[in-house]
Give the backbone structure.
Amino acid sequence: MSKKKHFGTDGIRGVANKILTPELAMSLGRAAGLWLRESGGVPRIVVGRDTRKSGPMLGMALSAGFNSAGVDVVSLGVAPTPTVSFVARTGDFGLGVIISASHNPFPDNGIKLVGHNGHKLSDEVELIIEGLMSDESVRPTGGDVGSLEQDPTLFEPYLAYLQTIIPGGLHGMAVAVDGANGAAYGLAPEILRRLGAETFVTGDNPDGVNINEFGGATKPDTIQALTQSTGAAIGVAFDGDADRAVFSDNKGRLINGDRTIGMWAAHELAMGRLDPKKVVGTVMSNGGFEHFVASRGIDLVRTPVGDKYVSQKLTELGAQIGGEQSGHIVFPKHGPTGDGLVTMLEVLRVMKESGRDAASIYEDYESWPQILVNMEVADRSTWNDGELVQSALEHATKDLVGHGRINVRASGTQPIVRVMVEADTYDLRDLVAASVVGAITKEAGGKIYSRVDLTHALGD
């Protein structure tokens, strides 16, 4: 397969107006429109964006490109990624387009395309679209030029669907919300209020530059403090495009993706609804989480890091839930991608049905000590060729049998090797990590770039 020039693993991202320019956006819109018409799809697309200042600029350029290919554009304005996916797969649209850089800092932006089924486009289709970006052969005129309109009423079916997750409502429950000044800043409090919950909200005043700046899913200290100070039953924080959510218990402790999956699966099992008895995580999922679900007869199936791998494995297994420590959780019955608002409501539903409070969810299990050391190396393709590194890795694997695990992988884009060590004691974890890091330092020109204790954190 040829190498893609613009598309990465999750659409196109870059600094807006420098790497991701209006000219590139217009060319992409035109090419995607041409592909849509040539493939026989409905020549009508829906587009939504997060709150970044550059969003309208890129949106207008994209729309102009689609219109020039004879494709109609319906804009939602500010909308979460999962909302666009929902509208695309339930409405008369050939594509959904999301303008967002998710958890990235505000100067960045991104463009992601999803098909009529709500799934991300395949690598093959992205290559075809890139090949059409210089095609000037088709130029509709007159009435064949595409139109542009806004239709905020398209939010209503999505909100109505969300309400069905908790048909009895949330009367009497207090929920703290951090919208990250991003795409969920309005919809998350709105659905909670419709369900009758009392809300305490922060991160709901976007100004175009403060997305993800003071809180959100990547900076959970904000929601942890708000939940504790308000006395809310639980707190929830979203990332910039609201496809992930993490939680705080009423004592201000972080409930990450592992704990979310664990509590949900254990509850559904107890209710006789977990079939098959499997959940999907990644190589970063904590050993304490794995032992917790295993103690209930539930298998944890691991994938490489990345929500697309989680989604693929869920489809393969027919499993009902999977995700990452970061809070990117996929419920296949609700949709093919992560949806932070769905995750929030599923957690609240379980709390309501089970009568459990958030603190007891946090205390389901004790996380195993886990550390991630990112190391700069001279060459990420040869870092493990030497005998010293090979020996250290072999000894580490033997030392951790029955007591933990090690995962060492080179970055696909940077001269960095990521060393993750997990063990049932801090001493064993740190001893093994020091041995492997030391070998990489001596033999592969390694230098520590960062060291993160992941025991009670979000993973990468």
In short: The chain has 14 helices and 19 strands.
